[in-house]
Amino acid sequence: MKISSRKHSFLLLFSIVGLCLRCVISIGVNYGTMGNNLPPPTQVAQFIKDKTVIDRIKIFDINPDILRAFANTGISVTVTIPNGEVPNLLDLAYARRYVEANIKPFYPLTKIDVVLVGNEVLHWDTPDVQMKLVPAMKNVHKALGLTGMKNVKVSSAHSLGILLRSNPPSSARFRPGWDVGILAPMLQFLRETKSPFMVNPYPYFGYNPKQEDFLLFRKNKGLYDRFSKKWYNNSFDMLLDAVYMSMVRLKYPDVEIVAAETGWPSQGETYEPQCTVENAASYNGGLVKKYNSGTGTPLMPHRKIETYIFGLFNENTKSGSLAERNFGLFRPDFTPVYNIGVLKGEQGHPTPSLPPPKTGGGNKGQPKTPVVRPPTQDKKFCMPKVEATDAQLQSNINYVCSQGVDCTPIQAGGPCFSPNTIRSHAAFAMNSYYQKMGRNSFNCDFAGTGVVAFDDPSYGTCKFQS
C-alpha cells in the first residue's frame, strides 16, 4: 500500500510540475530609446528581469549602456548595426574592428544572440546600399567568428514592403528584383548559418473598421484562402503565411521566421480612432496568448514564431503622429498602460475588459486633409499626414524617386509641378509609389508620415493613380 501510495503521489507531483511548466509564458519586446523621460538602462534591465515575463529584447542600435546593463540577466539581446554602416562593412577588416569595438566587450556576459545588419534596409535605403546588404551580413558573420563569437547569429529586419502581394497568403510573393537579386542570396546565407529571417508584420497598418475583430485577435467569422483551403481568424497569421509562401517560392521553406516587430498604439490623433487602450490591449494580449500557445499558423502549424512586441515604453520624442509615441506597454515610470499578462503575477488576459470601441460616428476635430473614411470603393490614395514635416516629406520624395517611380510629373514643366510645394509633390510621389508597389497598407507607411485616403486628390491636369 505504501509503495503504491508513493507512486501515485510521485505521478501526481510530476503531472502538476508538467502543467506548471506549460503555464509559464514569455514574450520578446523592442526596447526603443527615443524619449527624454525614460529610466536608465540599469533600472530597465532589473525591472524586466524581476517584474516581467519578458525573456528577450531587441534594440535599434548597439547601445553600450544597455548592453552593460543586461549583463548577467540571462535575457537574450538582439542588437542592430545602423543602416549607415552597411557600405563600410564590405571591408572585412572594418567589420572585424567594428565587432571587436562594439560587441566583443559585452559578450558573453550579455547574452547577445543575434546581430541585425540594418533595419528595413530594402524599404528605406538606395538600390546601391540594398545590393551591399547581403555581403555586409556575410562579413559581420565572418568577423564574429574571427573574434570568438561563432554562436551569434546574423540577420536583418524587413518591413513587409518586401512583398509584392500578401493577400491571399497562398498567392504571396516577394517583389521582382529583390526576390532573386537580394532575398534568395540572403535566405541561402541564413540557411547555411541557421539564422532567422526577421520581418515586421503590422496588422495595425492595414486597419479597416469592417475587419477590426479580425485584426485584433477577437472572435470573428474568419477569412478563407480558397487556394490553400485554409481558414484564418487573425491578420497576424495571414501576414506571416504570406512571408512563408514567398519563401517557399524561392525554395527556402525551412528557414526560421521571426516576427521582429509588431504592435498597436494605445493613443492617436483624432483621425486615428483605431488607437485606443482597448485595441492595443486586445492586439498585444492576443500576441502573447498566441505565442505561448505554440499553435503556429495555418501554413506553419507546428512552428512557434518568436515574437517581439513594439515596444517597451511610450517614447515621447518620436516624430510623426501621436500614435508613434504611444506604442509602449509601459510608461516611463514602469506603470503598465494596460494588462496583457507580461507582469509576473498578472492574469494572462488583456484588460480593461471593456466593450470593443466604436468606430465612426462623429469626426469632430478631424483635419480636412486627408479625409480618412472606411473603404467603400476601390479607389485608394496615399497622402501625407497633416503633421508630417517638410523634411520628412522631402525624404519621402527622394526615396520614391530612387525606386524607379516616374517622378517627371512633379518636375518643372510637368502636369503636377504646380503648386511648387514639398507637400504637393510628396503627395503625388507617395501615392505613385503606393500604387506601383501593390497598394498594401505598409506601402503607405513612410515611417508614419503617410495615410491611406479615399477622396481623389487629382486636380486640373494632374491626375493621381488609383
Automatic annotation (TrEMBL):
Keywords per UniProt: Disulfide bond, Glycoprotein, Glycosidase, GPI-anchor, Hydrolase, Lipoprotein, Membrane, Plant defense, Signal
Compartments, record wording: Cell membrane
The protein's name in its UniProt record: glucan endo-1,3-beta-D-glucosidase
Annotated X8 domain residues: 380-464
Top-level class of the enzyme under EC nomenclature: hydrolase
MF terms (GO), sorted A to Z: glucan endo-1,3-beta-D-glucosidase activity
Family per similarity comment: Belongs to the glycosyl hydrolase 17 family.
Keyword Signal: yes
Membrane topology: Lipid-anchor; GPI-anchor
Reaction catalysed by this enzyme: Hydrolysis of (1->3)-beta-D-glucosidic linkages in (1->3)-beta-D-glucans
Known EC number: 3.2.1.39
Residues covered by region (Disordered): 345-378
Organism (species): Capsicum baccatum
Endpoints of the signal sequence: 1-26
Gene3D superfamilies: 1.20.58.1040, Glycosidases (3.20.20.80)
Alphabetized SUPFAM superfamilies for the sequence: (Trans)glycosidases
Annotated GO biological process: carbohydrate metabolic process; defense response
Any one GO cellular component localisation term in the record: plasma membrane
